[in-house]
## 1
Amino acid sequence: MTTLVVAEHESGALRPATLNVITAAKAIGNDITVLVAGDGAADVAAAAANVDGVSKVLHADDAAYAQEIAENLASLIISQASGFTHILFAATAAGKNVMPRVAALLDVSAVSDITDVVSADTFIRPIYAGNAMATVQSGDDVKVISVRTTAFDSAAETGGSAAVETVAATEASALVTFIGEELSQSDRPELTSADIVVSGGRGMQNGDNFVMLDEIAEKLNAAVGASRAAVDSGFVPNEYQVGQTGKVVAPNLYIAVGISGAIQHLAGMKDSKVIVAINKDEEAPIFQVADYGLVADLFDALPELSKALDG
Amino acid sequence: MKILVGVKRVLDYNVKARVNADKTGIELANVKMSMNPFDEIAVEEALRIKEAGDADEVIAVSIGPSQSQETIRTALAMGADRGILLETDELLEPLAIAKLFKHVVEQESPGLVILGKQAIDGDNNQTGQMLSAITGMAQGTFASKVELNGDTAKITREVDAGLESINVTLPAVLTTDLRLNEPRYAKLPNIMKAKKKPLEITPVADLDVDVSSKLKVVEVNEPEQRSAGVIVNSVAELVEKLRNEAKVI
Ligand SMILES: Cc1cc2nc3c(=O)[nH]c(=O)nc-3n(C[C@H](O)[C@H](O)[C@H](O)COP(=O)(O)OP(=O)(O)OC[C@H]3O[C@@H](n4cnc5c(N)ncnc54)[C@H](O)[C@@H]3O)c2cc1C
Ligand SMILES: Nc1ncnc2c1ncn2[C@@H]1O[C@H](COP(=O)(O)O)[C@@H](O)[C@H]1O
């Protein structure tokens, strides 16, 4: 019984999400092989080989894997799939894009977004925006799974000494070509792995006012997130969205500012350790999940908070 | 060109889901059901493509119980031309749904299939990718912009670090993200007209499509609830508590 973990990486390093997936793989209990596909990703393969618990790394290097084109990655994974009982992905945008293809090509069901491993064939996953937790059992020969990264700790980046085996690339799809990307640049911690997240909602009124959150985030070394309303209104870009259909975060501290606490937002942050809500409406549902609630106008509270953090 | 859109009937997004008494699923008796919000976005996009002259027919497809006719009628009232219901009372897994969509694709030969990125009941986010895989049609998921260009389309996609764009050759399967468009409301006269639009109903059992699944739901439970916190009276008190009580800053 061996589990294949499909790695994600950027700028020559493993993405933190892959370390969480490796921990989920350990919980399943099999030997762990990591697949690294990339264009010039030898350093990533070497890094994966060092991760604690990894017993083998498969490395495919080809221009077809320079971007995360689902067709190309899925065909590579299928070419390597034989012998594996489990194939694991992170439930990231990239993982969600490829995972179901792999399952369909193997003619098995896919299991999305697991938060717990009960046994090698039984998993727990949230449904209905996390308002229910489903325990599901897979009778398929190969279990194809995506893992909610916030539900599993990171595997240690050292301690392993796996062999790296080069595997052949598969042909690139002629149907899809990559054109370009517009990625936001930030020196801040990444939203899904930050220790502290400060999020703003419609109450922020406009994008310029997010500077107030940036200032606080700077002082706390936090990431900045947002509600869907703030993204839809153009205050901040899409990658800030926390929620059922955005990113799931579970930091030590989540500060929700001018966010009402709709079901869909709560789905993305209610597993945070400590939740703070700042809202002028004492009836706002966000207060029902907040450990500390402050009923206040955010335009008074945020400058004060910023000042208090200096002291 | 024809466009197929998926329209799933789901618990309305404003209703809080409750686990049923025997812990087998969600209580769905006497609760408001609606079209999956991402599917409204899919219908809207298809209509805009048709209105721009790049498609001649929009077909709304739903798989589910008889009441899913209402969901299809909503799509028809928005402006879709006809509906197809593949009727079943079974809860099917995305792989089975994808296989049923493939069956419709083979019959209708659409240039585009537009599905939602995720159904907000099961939160699977699988069907579009699976349909692309088993039909060999190109895949463009989480679309926030679709620009048709003859037999290709430029898709702007919402990814974790921002946006990326890809070019896909048609026919293709697209899935919608929230920022793709703002769906229109069906106007009353159109709701009346929609009642006369064709809606073809076929039992899933009559089709030669394998909808079996080896994935079983063992049980469904309520999530752990957070215990209620405290209301603080000032920013100073908040900071003091975060430092000394919660020790998170
Ligand atoms: C299919 C679907 C998917 C969705 N996915 C997501 C998702 O992933 N993430 C998400 O967040 N939402 C999602 N939503 C949207 C969700 O339902 C809510 O509409 C959204 O979360 C509301 O955002 P908000 O709290 O910022 O805005 P509002 O609900 O408008 O709340 C604004 C809050 O700000 C407060 N406020 C206003 N001014 C001030 C002030 N000066 N000082 C202090 N407080 C102030 C108000 O009291 C209010 O509580 C989704 C919806 C659908 C249908
Ligand atoms: N029963 C269904 N009927 C029609 N469309 C569906 C059905 N199930 C899924 N879909 C489509 O597939 C999308 C993704 O669903 P899922 O993979 O279940 O999250 C939905 O937004 C719909 O467009």
Note: Chain A has eight helices and 18 strands.
## 2
Amino acid sequence: MKTHFETFEHEADIGVRGFGTTMEEAFENAARGLYSVMVNIDAVKPIKKRSVAVSASDSELLLVEWLNALLSLSDVERMVFSKFAVTRDGATITGIAWGEELDRERHMPRVEVKAATYHMLRVDRDDGRYVAQCVVDV
Amino acid sequence: MDIKTLNKVNDYLWDIPQQGAMRVPGRIFATEDLISGMDEKVREQIMNVAALPGIQVASMAMPDAHWGYGFPIGGVAAFDPDEGGIISMGGVGFDISCGVRTMKTGMTRDEIMPGLSQLVDELYRRVPAGLGSEGLIRLSPPQIDEMLIGGAEWAVKKGYGVKEDLDYIEEHGRVSGADPSHVSDSAKKRQHREMGTLGSGNHYLEVQVVDEIYDEQAALAMGLRKNDVVISVHCGSRGLGHQIGTDYLKSLAGAARRFKLPIRDRELASAPINSPEGKQYFGAMSAGINCALANRQIITHLVREIVTDMYPQGRVTMLYDISHNTCKVETHTVAGRKKRLYVHRKGATRAFGPGMIDLPQEYRHVGQPVLIGGTMGTPSYILAGTEAGMTTAFGSACHGAGRAMSRTQAKKQWRGRDVIDSLAGQGILVRSHSYAGVAEEAPGAYKDVTAVVNAAHHARLAKKVVQVRPLACVKG
């Protein structure tokens, strides 16, 4: 079973999609998808650790909250991330993100992401694996 | 979109008949060709907006309409607070008051050309752009609040630009109703380093030359002659606006459920204008507009410094500044009665007709300049608002070409380096912080802006005044 992330096409923006054997893993991979839109995540060293906690009334809204909390953290701390660990307790998730300060040479920045949206938002089980996806506004 | 489902009013105006939950009809300003190119989802979104409480006259789509988040991009809708009208985050979007500002340089093409390469290098070097760029000023929390209330007026007081600049901005550079207390701390923190930055994606800073004049009298009023050089900037409210959008998407989606609003798509996150949530959003969103106006004002100051450092004869003055993603309180006549309405323009610009007092004196007889951006390789247009547009579209017009191809497809089709070389071959100098970004923004990835502009002109939303062509472009 593949556990990974991908981006998908959208007319004006771009979608991010994470897969996982658990929902938490799908959320971690969706976050990797998000940063792959912004930078070359293979070049981002997971040397600094930050954590966020978010809550929402359902798992789809939770995904959007999770990704948006990361975007806010990235703007405020001028950091990018490449490794994630998510734990869920009902309507709340705690996420840890590892990364480093943005290096405009080494990380090969592509495009800013303004926000994760409710567009094509889906958190679901598909062929025995979890899928977590949404379109992000660039 | 299947044209057979629409009622033709004329070649440039088509109606979606009122049906089901729709409170008003849909109204699309476009040609048959442009409509056939639109996604079916655009119709669905126009119809969803038409079902929102308090909507007036029609749920409208501009010629460049495409599938958006809740509202179509290119969607216009006005709501009356006294008829249970709502305010919707989906009608504004995440990049609050993203817009275009065009400045005149006081120089012609011949005067600017010898230094063009150096000029674009300086613009690239001195105007912060691209992912992770940082502005030259840092604002403390109390200063952020002042900026959110004061907009471009605040920026001028701080020394970024001159008082005259403000006359050439919608609402004189500062919307009233901004309430920083409804803007979250995280939104303010996100803005800490980002004042006076361009951003990335479709944002740009472009040196352009007036190439063709369609309306001599209006061009004269705007101070434009053939071969004049102008500089345009396209950017928005940066991290602060994005965070306001993020915060209120959640809060208004909750409010919509609580008020049991008949909402068919949660992206339409809305609340009654007169509810606490509606008022909070309006206060925060207005603060976001002021942030975008201040941001473009700081960039104007940088551009002015760069141009006058390089060209002793250069004099940078404002042509106009328009905003795309806004909800504004305006007075419009509906069925013979003047009403104060909350006009949402998502990916659409205000295009006030002649006579409106918000316009600077010298434009008042020709209408508001409407700045419609093309791509790095295609022309942009300056139009003027019309009386007809005031009546049919709450004084609104389209904002740009719209994408024809996804970013993923564009990146498969072009390499950034090749796009830059090919444009250089056409005499257009491009500087960018990201080759991938350039590939995604390749001119071929966009629809034909000229077709969109011609449709707006013939639909009488705005009339064509001049065409400008790119000479050099800085991308984020």
Note: The mean pLDDT of chain B is 96.
